[in-house]
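Hey L., structure's done. Input below.
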Amino acid sequence: MSKLPRSHPRYLSLTQRHRLEEGVKKGITHGQGLIAHGRGEAFDYLLGERTHGFSRRACEAAVALLLLAKKPVISVNGNIAALCPKEIVQLGKETGAQIEVNLFYRTRKREKAIAKELAKYGCRALGVSPDSRIKGLVSGRGKVSSCGIGSADVVLVPLEDGDRAEALKRAGKKVIAIDLNPMSRTARSGTITIVDNVTRALPLMASFAMELRKRKPAELARIVKSFDNKSALREAERKIRKGL
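Output:
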């Protein structure tokens, strides 16, 4: 991988694949996560592998919602921990959000491995040995920390499962999703959905947070209220269809 020139047209994409490969070796990423990444990569091709206006507006609204929250939490799975641990920790610091490990293929070994990876960037993550459960969700992702996702009012769920996004909504929480497929259950369940690659969206959100945290709550509320999630999803879908 070190021999791959930055001028290579697939440099960024191949770099992300390499990070996931290393994540599997470290016990952070599950093999199924590689399949999920490939599916998302296909949508990213159709988006031109760049952040569009509808994504930027969603990022801004999402950050405003995190800053308005009483108890915001960022959910981290194996792919996120492998692809952008530094960026997720930075976003947590900028918005005051706690970070919690949450996994579909959950083992204590993976929980600890991900928490250890996040700790490299100064994060003390929740979610190791969770003590609560999201009602109606029987998979491993239903297990949560009672002082984290269990009691959160806003949850950022990058690379999420549709059933858990729906369960979080039923539990009365506002859900911020990052999903490259605007037609997925996750995207359509989100209070705010960012249709973009997490490696682009998370740094952009951190940048917005540095700016928006200086704003008054009323200004933040206006940003959230003015964002139309259904309209943004339709715009993203049109862009993807045009990409065909």
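The chain has a mean pLDDT of 89. The chain has one domain: 53-243.

-- N.
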